[in-house]
From TrEMBL:
Pfam family, one: Glyco_tran_WecG
Lineage: Bacteria, Bacillati, Actinomycetota, Actinomycetes, Micrococcales
Protein's organism: Microbacterium phycohabitans
Top-level division of the source organism's lineage: Bacteria
Protein name: WecB/TagA/CpsF family glycosyltransferase
Family matches, as CDD domains: Glyco_transf_WecG_TagA
Keyword Transferase in annotation: yes
Keyword Ubl conjugation listed: no
Keywords, in A-Z order: Glycosyltransferase, Transferase
């Protein structure tokens, strides 16, 4: 599988679009002798990978690292041969590939962990309404109680053992720590992914930015306008801190 190195030793990414991501989940990953990790990299995640912690560890252990955000796409283009440049269609968020997976409606067992009890209920209802074959089990991110619209056992650990795909949306870095702590419970051939707040968008508890804004790199502005308190530091402060750290790293290397 093609990977792209990021400049300044910032790691690498896997330029896949939504279709290719679903193909991997339903194909090669299913034949693995261990659980596969589907990671993603946006600017906030990149910032967290510069310090020891669960985000850095999970990113390093990921089998696939999706390009989630324009800054990562631009970084990937900086160090890639022209013929191998990632394209805008390979900049995808969790909502993009999960929407495609739901549309395909494969006969797989999905365990979702995260969101408020309200979000878990609404997300499970959305899946039940729009699919026929997917077996969906949703546990909220507070009490880890199973949503009423889900099916299967109430005990989370028992449900994880039978999953083909595990989606964890608890926010960074909590979701990455949760995945690392529960990885041994996941069966070989299953995929586990950190998906942030994507459940909220399907459940309708958060608004998804218009897709045209994502195509031109302004999705962050839409999110900031709708959640300024929660996202101001991430979108306005962290990029400056990241740039400062990268400049200092470059200076040290030239000393």
């Amino acid at each position: 599988m093609r990977t792209v190195a990021l400049p300044w030793d910032l790691g690498h990414a896997t330029p896949l679009d939504a279709t290719q991501t679903c193909d991997w989940i339903l194909g090669p990953a299913r034949t693995s002798s261990r659980p596969s990790i589907l990671g993603n990299l946006n600017l906030h995640a990149l910032h967290l990978t510069l310090e020891p912690g669960p985000v850095r560890e999970l990113t390093a252990r990921s089998d696939v690292i999706l390009i989630d955000g324009w800054p990562i796409l631009l970084l990937a283009k900086m160090s890639s041969p022209k013929s191998g440049w990632p394209t805008t269609r390979e900049r995808i968020g969790s909502t993009d590939w999960l929407a495609e997976l739901l549309a395909r409606d494969p006969a797989i067992t999905v365990v979702a962990v995260g969101g408020t009890p309200e979000t878990a209920e609404k997300m499970a209802r959305h899946v039940k309404t729009h699919t026929r074959s997917i077996r969906w089990h949703h546990f909220d991110g507070y009490r880890f109680s199973r949503a009423a619209e889900s099916t299967g056992p109430d005990v989370l650990t028992d449900t994880l053992a039978g999953a083909d795909l595990v989606l964890v949306g608890l926010g960074m870095p909590r979701q990455e720590k949760w995945i690392l702590d529960h990885l041994e419970l996941i069966a070989p051939g299953a995929v586990i992914a950190n998906v942030g707040g994507c459940f909220d968008y399907f459940a309708g508890t958060q608004r998804l930015a218009p897709r045209w804004m994502g195509r031109i790199g302004l999705e962050w502005l839409f999110r900031l306008a709708h959640s300024p308190r929660r996202l101001a530091k991430r979108y306005l402060v962290e990029p400056l801190v990241l740039i400062s750290r990268l400049v200092r790293r470059g200076v040290r290397r030239h000393d």
